[in-house]
Amino acid sequence: MTSRRKPTDGAPLADAKTVRAMMAGACDLAVAVDAEGVVRLVETGGEDFAGARPEEWVGRPLEAFVTPESVPKLRALLEEARTAERPRRRELNHPSGAGEDLPIRYSAAYAPEDDLVLLMGRDMRAIASLQARLVAAQQAMEQEYERLRQMET
């Protein structure tokens, strides 16, 4: 017979190493942010972030590592994580050394016992690339359609 601990018995359900492994396995980028917006923990799961270096964010405000247009979305995400039952997911862009921004879609959860917001992010570069190709194909089709219309007249 196996024994299961209840969350109410006062003992932690997992140690920090296990939590880090779970976070890294569940998302491409996991970030723990304190009440002042400072990054306290980063787990990348071995992902390559094209010049962005999330491991260097620890000890610094997360706002310093998002694009200016993402700052209001980050603030809203952190606020909702602390106050809302189910905060909305948000896509934030991080500048990268490779020239293109790094789009990450974050979910958030609040850990009140540590007063941390846990951000679990999914790398959206593949989807952004598909969207760009779709737009390019649509524009090419419209140009060809216009060319055909001009030939008919």
Brief summary of the model shown:
Helix content is 34%, strand content 22%. With 153 residues, it is an alpha+beta fold. It starts with 15 loop residues before the first helix and ends with a helix.
Mean residue pLDDT: 82
Uncertain regions spanning at least 5 consecutive residues:
1-8
Distance between the termini: 82 Å
Helix and strand composition category: alpha+beta
Spatial strand arrangement across the major sheet: 2-1-5-4-3
Gyration radius (Cα, Å) is 21 Å
Can you offer a commentary on this structure?
The chain is α+β, with helices and mostly antiparallel strands and 153 residues long. Helix content is 34%, strand content 22%. The protein contains 3 helices and 5 strands. The protein has helices spanning 16-26, 71-83, 125-152, and strands at 29-33, 39-43, 90-94, 102-111, 116-123. The protein has a 5-stranded antiparallel beta sheet. A hairpin with a 5-residue loop joins strand 1 (29-33) and strand 2. The longest helix has 28 residues, at 125-152. The protein is elongated, with a radius of gyration of 21 Å. 24% of the residues are buried.
List keywords for this structure.
elongated; 153 residues; single chain; disordered N terminus; 3 helices; alpha+beta
Question: What's the structural blueprint in terms of helices and strands?
Answer:
Elements: H1 16-26, E1 29-33, E2 39-43, H2 71-83, E3 90-94, E4 102-111, E5 116-123, H3 125-152
Antiparallel strand pairs: 1-2, 1-5, 3-4, 4-5
